[in-house]
Amino acid sequence: MFKHKKLRRITKYEQYFMITIGIILMVLGFYYFLLPADLVAGGVSGLGLVFNKLLGYKVSYIVLACNMVLLIFALLFLGKKAFIKSIYGSILFPVTLYIFENFLPPLDIESDYVLAVTFGGFFLGLGFGLVIKYGGTSGGTDIPIRILNKRFKLSLSASIYSVDGFIILLGVMAFYADYGIITGLYALITMFISGKVADMVIVGSNSKKAVQIITDYPEEIKESIYKAVTRGVTEVEVLGGYSKTKKTMLVTVITRQEYYLIRNIIANIDEDAFVYVTPATEIQGDFQERESDE
């Protein structure tokens, strides 16, 4: 007899616990590996490192100040939902960094860029992947990236490269007298590693996924997906090879940011649904990045 594993809904407590773990891992990667090596690898933490060099204030103070300003931009340009959703990560990241700065000694790896890039990129990607997988946001530059994507119609990848690329350029300028362009080149490698690790943590190595859902409640799931993420859904009639029972399979393509939402939609409606996710390596036709104020 085959054992059927029910699809479990992720609770709010589990969601915020995992988001918290993710942000702690991001801070760990930044504080222990990027900060000692003066690697400005994008993000508000990178801005904090730049202004720490120029003004001498603690990085956590600068990150908190930048995040508060960016929260205002989220409210003005992305709406109330995005503002509320960004509050937790925007506050937790600098608070955690402040604790690290004041109570934990940094590592002495100033000249070991291979170690800094490898482990810094790994922990940043691991933490960010957990935050996104569980439906959260780390705040910070997530906000201007989404503004560029939603308001100015830049693709998500172009928005990320624009914002983080600008911060890396500021880092090169701030530390040019000490390192030339070396830290900027290592920062690009760090971004690449963290992006790959984040993708693997969320739903595998590809940013877009094809989701197949075999369920007894196709209409309810389909309508919920339409309302939540504005995705097209294909229906396929299937026959169970073992049970000989007729069911409906729903097929849709999602981005990594939508995984948590889709998973909980299915679990809320049909915990007995059979769900599997595969990489969507090439997409032709009408597929657009999600535009939402969630």
Topology:
Blueprint: H1 12-34, H2 43-55, H3 59-77, H4 80-103, H5 113-133, H6 142-151, H7 156-174, H8 176-179, H9 182-203, E1 208-215, H10 218-229, E2 234-239, E3 246-255, H11 259-269, E4 274-279
Antiparallel strand pairs: 1-3, 1-4, 2-3
Describe, in plain words, how this protein is organized in 3D:
The protein has helices spanning 12-34, 43-55, 59-77, 80-103, 113-133, 142-151, 156-174, 176-179, 182-203, 218-229, 259-269; strands at residues 208-215, 234-239, 246-255, 274-279. The longest helix has 24 residues, at 80-103. With 294 residues, it is of the alpha+beta class. It folds into 2 domains: 12-203, no CATH class; 208-279, Alpha-Beta Plaits (2-Layer Sandwich), CATH 3.30.70.120. 40% of the residues are buried. The model is unreliable at 290-294 (pLDDT under 50). The protein is elongated. Strands 2-3-1-4 form a 4-stranded antiparallel sheet, with no helix packed on it. It has 11 helices and 4 strands; from the N terminus they run αααααααααβαββαβ. Strand 2 (234-239) and strand 3 (246-255) form a beta hairpin.
